[in-house]
Amino acid sequence: MISSGGHGWRIGTLSGIPVFLGRSWILVALVMVFIFGPIVNNIMPDFRVGAYAIATLFAVLLLLSVLVHEAAHAIVAQRVGFTVSRIVADFWGGHTAHDGAGGTPGRSAAVAVVGPLANGVLALLGWWATGWFEPGVAWLLAYAFTFANAFVAIFNLLPALPLDGGFLLEALVWRVSGNRYLGTMVAGWFGRLLVVLLGIWAISPMLIDGEDVSLLRIVWVILIGAFLWQGASQAVDAGRLGVRLSRRQVGEVARPVGVIPADAALDGVDWRSRELWIVLGADGRPEGVVDPRALSSVPHQAWSGTTANALAVRLPEGWAATLDESTRLDRVLEIMRSTGSGVVGLLDDSGRPWGAVLVDDVSASGGIGPRS
Fold first, then answer.
1. How many Cβ atoms sit within 10 Å of the Cβ of residue 237?
2. Cα separation, 194 vs 48, whole angstroms
3. 239-276 residues labelled b (16+ CB within 10 A) or e (exposed)
4. Of 91, 86, 92, which is closest to residue 20 (Cα–Cα)?
5. Domain locations in the chain?
6. Alpha-carbon span 83 to 69, nearest angstrom
7. Separation between Cα atoms, residue 199 and residue 202, nearest integer Å
8. pTM
């Protein structure tokens, strides 16, 4: 059953992972039809309008290739212990969203490499299929399927983020240096270099032989280059921030916190003594936080009958972790990214909160400095 959601149309589930067809994929299908249709028409002029029906079948085969690629990422990510939230096929091919918590260079490399390998297997199957068909529609589709998957497999293995090969390079640098973010930054710079090389390739006929360059070639390079440059730049920025944070310790930025049970009445707490309070559930585990500024939303005469639970901001699973003052600060950044929380609760070995780090404390714009 197909249902619509924020990530597109939900078309199924794989190992408990929702699979979405992004709305932008319709644009991809249209582009493929209008590019591949005339090619089919030139090869098989008798088909005429039917050539575009064949091109539509090719777009469907491409969608299948994308889903197999992303399914490979998702299944391996699950097997190595990552939490996978969704698979999406969209304008740029597709992506698999997973948290990466507890990652290692080996696990990251395994998740990255299986996508291109899956396309390689599909290319081999397509090549095998071309031997079974006589020249015609089926043979043409098998040949195009083979070429497309072989290209995707090879291109994706280039050592440049945001391609899968970039994650392999990241894992290699991570393994050698011990710093994941250094790997991210290096692979991001390689991504930028790839864009430059693509641009040179796009205009090389004009530079070398003085030939005209087709508009289609330029448009494709601009689209792909823009996508790669954006992803590479995000990687460089994230890597640069992570490297900087890896040189700092949690204790340098940790904010002192107050700790209260969820059923504590508002009038029984000295809210002015702390700028942030961590709320404990009935089981004694941190459930969320209260910012004292939120007290202004409750009339003072109602404080005695209102509990901290009413003002608590619930945070995602995993937002609080056992970290001491000497923990590298990039560990906090990893928790924020894997949970989506802007607050990380700091717990001692007994599970008792002793501090917190906010997203402003680790952001480039917010600065990093000690808190009193």
1. 14
2. 39
3. bbbbbebbebbbeebbbebbebebebebeebebeebbb
4. 86
5. 3-246, 250-362
6. 18
7. 5
8. 0.79
* Residue-wise pLDDT tens digits, 112-128: 999 999 999 999 999 99
Q: Which two tokens stand for residue 27?
A: 């644009």
The DSSP string of 40-78 is HHHH-GGGTTHHHHHHHHHHHHHHHHHHHHHHHHHHHHH
pLDDT digit string, tens, across residues 22-67: 888 888 778 777 777 777 777 777 766 677 888 888 888 888 999 9
Whether the per-residue pLDDT at 372 is higher than 60: the answer is: no
Mean pLDDT within 94-109: 84
Domain 250-362 indexed as CATH 3.10.580.10: yes
Q: Are 353 and 320 in contact (CB under 8 A)?
A: yes
- Amino acid letter for position 253: V
Question: Which structure tokens are listed for 275?
Answer: 């700028």
